[in-house]
Q: What sequence folds into this?
């Protein structure tokens, strides 16, 4: 995030797009609700009528994959009505003229038609966002990034942040809400094909030389490949070994059959996980790891805050901390390690990565964590980025981006859009939530969420067993009728692979820059399955009954938890 979680409560306006915040980031959603209770405007732009829309001043229900025309049109209005921050644009950005000309191709009326919305929504968002700036925050997650045009989607939001002077503004910014625990820390530590720890570019010779000297080992001169490419190369025989750490690849990768084929094609597969997952079952060697609650070290959260974690319980059986397994591997592979503990590993990293240099264990032990960049030991850390200038040291570049529809659009054979994502009571592939009793009372199996008007037209009833097919595969799932889904678009999660491996169906398209898979759009056809699963119907009836009795009070409580 450019800004901090706590700051959101002070925003004048929050624009949430492609983020089901109350379900996927419940703590952050509390800050949003607090902002609303203090008078901030909340705008939600999302194809699905998610829970957060209940708190929104305006809900804009765009069609899946139409963010660029929407945000280009918003920029069009901000520029044509001269609502942008001229001083900020002239002192801190470049490329404004070309961008202003470009967005003339996206008049509100034209974009509204592509997005399937009322043109007034575009004027409203443009005027309110500009009026509330600086101090208007944009928050986005996978509805923006998991598209074949995902990086351009992000740039279209960045353009708005620059027009309105929100990069470097308290309670403003353009904020990607990070996903897994410590995914931020993984990136900070260099788990990116192009970067060494601290986002230092491997391909820059002085950087590479610094790390070679510190590690006493030669480094590759060229960037690595992404996982998408690696999986393809396994099938071609060019990547022969794979080490999977904390990922249930055959369930969570797009086009699951392809992912499984890739892992089966590799000569040697190692999986390091806390459970024997579907992926671990394919491995030649499984290394049992300790969980977060059994580990010592640091995690970095969404707002760049590095925090200490300490083991609360002992790992079971032969499970060991991830870091201990890795250090042992180094030793056994003939690269003896001086480092012995997570503290020593951290100390080495902070000495090599300027953004982390001032974050010591001593300081972490005393406080609530520190947000990078933190260049020196007397630096307090950075609450929000780009305060006086863009942190890159360069101006912000406006990006003239164009609408690119999803790689697979509905047609006569596959007439429905499937978008996938999360629900509050399940976590990804279900390896963890699937083992905890209680969650199954809320969502006992996969459900395909269908708009009731579509269901009527397709002669589908709640609880029916359906067969959902795409060009890549087919799954069975039970039907759930809900207004959350817009007409023509259905939704599924991917947490119940035993009976419904959703990613057998999802698209194999990906973003052309980051290679992020297009999980948010593919074309499917929906049929009633030849064999109905009566258990699914019973389970759903039970939830409905429980919902009628319990949920209204629960929901009320939730709505009251505004602070
Ligand atoms: N309970 C729970 N919480 C989680 C997780 C979990 O599995 N379970 N996973 C964590 C992880 S790793 C991540 S990355 C985050 C993900 O957090 P989110 O991205 O919030 O989760 P998704 O369910 O994928 O939701 C994406 C949102 O994008 C919307 N969307 C779909 N297509 C489009 C589009 O074309 N445009 C726009 N504007 N919106 C669109 C969907 O309707 C949905 O509301 O959640 C984290 N939190
Ligand atoms: N259809 C569809 N597919 C998607 C997405 C989508 O929106 N739609 N979203 C994508 C996204 S954003 C994400 S992040 C992925 C998530 O995909 P995965 O990361 O594959 O999903 P998880 O089920 O969370 O798997 C994490 C694994 O890590 C293990 N684990 C947990 N803690 C530890 C630990 O401390 N050490 C080790 N070594 N292992 C541990 C768990 O047991 C589990 O097997 O799914 C992606 N796939
Ligand atoms: Mo994620």
A:
């Amino acid at each position: 995030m450019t800004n901090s979680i706590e700051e959101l409560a002070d925003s004048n306006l929050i624009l949430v797009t492609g983020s089901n915040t109350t379900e996927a980031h419940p703590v952050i959603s509390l800050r949003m609700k607090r902002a609303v209770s203090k008078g901030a405007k909340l705008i939600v732009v999302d194809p699905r009528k998610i829970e957060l829309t209940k708190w929104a001043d305006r809900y804009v229900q765009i069609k899946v994959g139409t963010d660029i025309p929407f945000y280009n049109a918003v920029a069009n209005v901000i520029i044509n009505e001269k609502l942008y921050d001229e001083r900020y644009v002239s002192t801190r950005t470049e490329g404004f003229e070309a961008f202003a000309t470009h967005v003339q191709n996206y008049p509100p009326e034209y974009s509204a038609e592509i997005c399937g919305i009322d043109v007034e929504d575009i004027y409203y968002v443009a005027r309110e966002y500009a009026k509330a700036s600086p101090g208007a925050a944009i928050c986005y997650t996978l509805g923006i990034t998991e598209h074949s045009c995902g990086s351009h989607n992000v740039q279209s939001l960045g353009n708005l942040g620059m027009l309105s002077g929100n990069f470097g503004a308290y309670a403003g910014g353009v904020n990607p809400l990070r996903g897994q625990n410590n995914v931020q820390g993984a990136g900070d530590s260099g788990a990116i094909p192009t970067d060494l720890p601290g986002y230092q570019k491997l391909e820059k010779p002085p950087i590479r030389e610094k790390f070679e000297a510190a590690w006493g080992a030669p480094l590759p001169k060229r960037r690595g490949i992404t996982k998408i490419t690696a999986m393809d190369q396994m099938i071609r025989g060019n990547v022969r070994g794979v080490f999977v750490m904390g990922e249930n690849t055959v369930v969570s990768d797009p086009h699951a059959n392809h992912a499984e084929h890739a892992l089966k094609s590799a000569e040697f597969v190692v999986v390091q996980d806390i459970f024997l997952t579907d992926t671990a079952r394919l491995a030649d060697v499984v290394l049992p790891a300790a969980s977060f609650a059994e580990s010592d070290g640091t995690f970095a959260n969404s707002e760049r805050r590095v925090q200490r974690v300490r083991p609360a319980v002992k790992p079971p059986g032969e499970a060991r901390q991830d870091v201990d397994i890795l250090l042992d591997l180094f030793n056994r592979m003939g690269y003896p390690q001086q480092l012995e503990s997570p503290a020593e590993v951290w100390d080495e990293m902070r000495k090599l990565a300027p953004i982390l240099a001032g974050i010591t264990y001593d300081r972490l032990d005393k406080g609530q964590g520190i947000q990078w960049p933190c260049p020196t030991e007397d630096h307090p850390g950075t609450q929000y980025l780009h305060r006086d200038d863009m942190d890159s040291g360069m101006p912000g570049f406006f990006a003239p981006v164009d609408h690119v529809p999803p790689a697979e659009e509905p047609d006569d054979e596959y007439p429905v859009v499937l978008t996938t994502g999360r629900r509050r009571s399940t976590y990804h592939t279900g390896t963890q939530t699937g083992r905890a009793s209680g969650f199954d009372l809320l969502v006992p199996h996969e459900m395909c969420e269908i708009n009731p008007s579509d269901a009527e037209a397709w002669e589908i009833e709640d609880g029916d067993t359906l067969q959902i097919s795409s060009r890549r595969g087919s799954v069975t799932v039970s039907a759930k009728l809900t207004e959350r889904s817009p007409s023509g678009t259905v939704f599924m999660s991917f947490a119940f692979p035993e009976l419904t491996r959703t990613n057998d169906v999802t698209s194999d398209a990906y973003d052309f820059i980051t290679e992020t898979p297009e999980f948010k759009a593919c074309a499917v056809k929906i049929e009633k399955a030849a064999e109905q699963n009566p258990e699914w119907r019973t389970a759903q009836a039970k939830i409905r009954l429980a919902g009628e009795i319990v949920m209204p009070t629960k929901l009320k409580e939730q709505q009251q938890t505004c602070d």
The chain has three domains: 6-177, 183-371, 416-546. The first strand starts at residue 13 and ends at 17.
